[in-house]
Design a protein that fits this description.
By secondary structure, this protein is α/β, with parallel strands linked by helices. It folds into two domains: 169 residues, Medium-chain alcohol dehydrogenases, catalytic domain (Quinone Oxidoreductase, Chain A, domain 1, Alpha-Beta Complex); 138 residues, NAD(P)-binding Rossmann-like Domain (Rossmann fold, 3-Layer(aba) Sandwich), CATH 3.40.50. Helix content is 27%, strand content 26%. Strands 3, 4, 5, 6, 7, 14 and 15 form a seven-stranded mixed beta sheet that branches. Helix 10 links the parallel strand 14 and strand 15. It is globular and about 60 Å long.
């Protein structure tokens, strides 16, 4: 079988296609013939050695979907022929995040999904909604579960809430769809009018070009008649954090997801205090959340937005497309 490995962790030049034997599932495991994958910003960080301790030889990507071809002894919760995705952290099944969950993250701490065949624990997979294409289903494990956790589990989104989405990447656009599913009013920011057009087609009620309006937090206050948003899905990090605080109403929710502008920086702690802001760190989510989200996707017919699809042979090109930040939605691969 063919798979990709990060021969080193020094950038995209370390992405190497290799030939390996098809693995066999042991007790409690399943063999998956993978059919589609999706990329996340995290995958660029992993390839560059900027995401946790570098591990040369790792199979990249947390996100992939495929069909179970063989099950090991004792497996009952899934069966041969089921179309499944792996959960981001193989050790987080339900409840609060375990302290060692990060040690079970696919495509980083342990080998990921960018392989023609993978073996995973039967406890670490979920069945995906039948109406989705393979590429759409492959978009779910990281970005979609993260967005669901941020909006539904941690922020308790309700009909009538106002939700701000920063940018048009995978997390922000699927969060836009989930927010509309729950009856929220949505505001999307971007530096690209073309990307804002895409957001409007997906249901955005208001859009703000932050290149034309650098003080986009003030635009949010204007849209909400000075009240502020109920939820800001924060994917930027220190470069956008204080504006997100300013855009929130007193008592609002700020699920912190991304580090696009860095991992360290000054934060207005006084604003958090004075406005009684609830800041939640969001590290993807559990299998329980994934299953809950899938039920909502299946019932609603929602389809995650795919920006561009590449072939398995073109993995490097897919990484480069993501790196250029020209996408709106998910960057995927299929075979």
């Amino acid at each position: 079988m063919q798979r990709y490995e990060l021969a080193a962790v020094t950038g995209l030049d370390s992405l190497t296609r290799v030939e390996r034997d098809v693995p066999r599932p042991g007790p409690g495991q399943v063999l998956i013939r993978t059919t589609a994958w999706s990329l996340n910003y995290r995958d660029l960080l992993v390839a560059g050695g900027r995401y946790g301790p570098p591990r040369a030889g790792c199979v990249p990507l947390s996100d992939g979907v495929g069909v179970i071809e063989e099950v090991g002894a004792g497996v009952t919760r899934v069966a041969v022929g089921d179309r499944v995705a792996g959960i981001f952290m193989q050790g987080w099944i339900a409840g609060d995040i375990p302290g060692d969950a990060g040690n079970t993250a696919l495509g980083g701490a342990i080998d990921g999904m960018l392989s023609e065949y993978v073996v995973l624990s039967a406890e670490g997979v979920v069945k995906v909604p039948a109406h989705l294409t393979d590429a759409e289903a492959a978009s779910l494990p990281c970005a979609a579960v993260t967005a669901w956790n941020a909006l539904v589990r941690e922020s308790g989104i309700r009909a009538g809430d106002t939700v701000v989405l920063l940018g048009t990447g995978g997390v922000s656009l699927i969060a836009l769809q989930f927010a509309k599913l729950h009856g929220a009013t949505t505001i999307v920011t971007s530096s690209s009018d073309a990307k804002l057009d895409i957001a409007r087609r997906l249901g955005a009620d208001h859009t703000v070009n932050y290149r034309a309006q650098p003080d986009w937090d003030r635009a949010v206050l204007d849209i909400t008649n000075g009240r502020g948003a109920d939820i800001v899905v924060e994917v930027g990090g220190p470069g956008t954090f204080d504006k997100s605080l300013a855009a929130l109403r007193p008592g609002g929710h700020l699920p912190l997801i991304g580090v696009l502008t860095g991992v360290n920086g000054a934060v207005s702690t006084a604003a958090i205090l004075r406005k009684h802001i609830r800041v939640h760190g969001i590290y993807v989510g559990s299998r329980e959340m994934f299953d809950e989200m899938n039920r909502a996707i299946a019932a609603s017919g929602l389809r995650p937005p795919v920006d561009r699809n590449f072939g398995f042979d073109d993995a490097r090109a897919a990484y480069e497309h993501l790196e250029r930040a020209a996408h709106a939605g998910k960057v995927t691969l299929t075979r």
